[in-house]
Amino acid sequence: MTVHPLPADFGAFPFALPGGHPADSRHAQPVTCHAAGNEIYAQGEKAGCLYQVEFGAVRVYRLLSDGRRQISAFHLAGEVFGFEADGTHHFFAEAIGATGIRTLRLQAAADLSHALLPLALQSLVRAQEHLLVLGRQQAAERVAAFLLDMAERQGVLERFDLPMSRTDIADYLGLTIETVSRVFSKLREKGIIRLHGLRGVEIARWQTLRDMSE
Amino acid sequence: MTVHPLPADFGAFPFALPGGHPADSRHAQPVTCHAAGNEIYAQGEKAGCLYQVEFGAVRVYRLLSDGRRQISAFHLAGEVFGFEADGTHHFFAEAIGATGIRTLRLQAAADLSHALLPLALQSLVRAQEHLLVLGRQQAAERVAAFLLDMAERQGVLERFDLPMSRTDIADYLGLTIETVSRVFSKLREKGIIRLHGLRGVEIARWQTLRDMSE
DNA sequence: CGAGATTTTGAAAAATTTCAACATTCGTGG
DNA sequence: CCACGAATGTTGAAATTTTTCAAAATCTCG
Predict the structure, then answer these.
(1) Residue B112 belongs to a domain with what CATH number?
(2) Fewer Cβ neighbours under 10 Å: the N or C end of chain B?
(3) Which of these three, B86, B111, B133, is where a domain ends?
């Protein structure tokens, strides 16, 4: 299975804000449903669209010559991604699980560059925050920051599901899967988080986690 | 010494492209000269300007609660920085050595948001590239990528000067100063680079360095 | 030239990775 | 509905890398 068109009365793209729900459907854009692992765009492809996650999650990554994969960003429902400075994609983007993506063709809407700047700056903020996490020397600090970020971006008070695998998390945090797993276990043993299956997470002590992530 | 006004016929801000030289002086903006360590803006301050480096270099960083400092970006001559998504600075910016900064007040030029988008995307690209460097697990890979980036941004064929200290480099790469120093020494011993004093660098084997940085 | 700051080097300690084995989860089909 | 198998995740122990702490060397500037 690859791509399904959807009935899609989800709302218009440029009026949808990251983290919120689209509110206007006058300029409804095509929405496609991607299965897990589905490619949204590839490195080297010509870029001409922006993408907004309707549901599900997306990973954006680059492959290194030795086969390692560095994930530069995860995108959750409501978030917009796909900005490129020179008209070419320098990353791969793919659906993590079943994911709905709204597409905006930029050529057809040259006049909304003023609406694009805030979205681009949002991407910049996310990249900068991720940068700060990767600069941390301790694995536990990175994982703590990651969990808080995921919880906050999902607007969660207690239990939530991580859309991505441990391998994805490792490639996002610049760690190995084993180190990520060990940190999860340690946080669980200390009663800071509770795990429900492989994906379910519950943050028991928010402040402790915040102190860890600094 | 803090800030000097300059005669400044350097050229107009919005027409200057990162990496190039300003070409039009019809809308010349104020240029100030900062001494080493001079603050350009502080975290928490209201943001209303963009900045372009005329000469010298700038570091942009955040202080962590335990006193550590994470440098998110260095900016060299020609580059524009200071983008903020919400009108507030979330980082500190300061001159590394003697540095000339051209300032653009954004309120006075609301109509050039279309000229701003490419500059913002440029910042995004730099942040994403830095992200990939920080994701590398080996210190030598990070230092190799850093040296190549510095050389290329200065448009250098052979010898060039690093504007920043080893401590700055360490805080930029998420390493300790000792590790950075050891990697420099190792690269020198292997004949991959040559060092001239503390700041001068000469890349002897570009391809070897590229292979290291992947 | 000399003093302070910066950088380099060494050795031990700590953290992470690697390699290997084991456990758990999830989907599928009987 | 349970069992099976593949995929994913966890744990252990050794090897490697990086950090930490300490001291020596080098550089810069007055």
Answers:
(1) 2.60.120.10
(2) N
(3) B133
Query: Which among A125, A136, A174 has the least Cβ separation from residue B85?
Result: A125
Residues A97 and A186 in one domain: no
A17 phi, psi to nearest 5 deg: -100, 145
- SS3 category, B97: coil
Amino acid, res. B120: A
Domain count, chain B: 2
Per-residue pLDDT of chain B (214 residues; tens, 9 = 90+): 344 433 333 333 444 433 334 444 445 678 999 999 999 999 999 999 999 999 999 999 999 988 899 999 999 999 999 999 999 999 999 999 999 999 998 876 666 777 899 999 999 999 999 999 999 999 999 999 999 999 999 998 889 999 999 999 999 999 999 999 999 999 999 999 999 999 999 999 999 999 999 8
Burial B16-40 (b: 16+ CB within 10 A, else e): bbbeeebeeeeeebebbbbeeebeb
Min Cα distance B84 → chain A (Å) is 7
Is B78 in the same domain as B126? yes
Determine the residue among A131, A178, A214 to mutate to test chain B binding: the one whose Cβ has the most chain B Cβ atoms within 10 Å: A131
Query: Which residues of chain B have a Cβ shorter than 8 Å from any chain A Cβ?
Result: 62, 64-66, 70, 72, 83-85, 90-91, 113-114, 116-118, 120-125, 127-128, 130-132, 134-137, 171, 174-175, 214
CB contact under 8 A, B131 and A135: no
Clarify whether residues A185 and A91 are in a common domain: no
> Do A163 and A81 fall within a single domain?
no
**Domain match, B127 and B173 both:** no
**Alpha-carbon separation of residue A142 from A34, A170, A208, B137 (angstroms):** 29, 10, 14, 14
Distance of CA A43 to the CA centre of its chain: 17
Residues 163-202, chain A, CB closer than 7 Å to nucleic strand C: 174-176, 178-179, 182, 197-199
Neighbours of B59 (CB within 10 A): 24
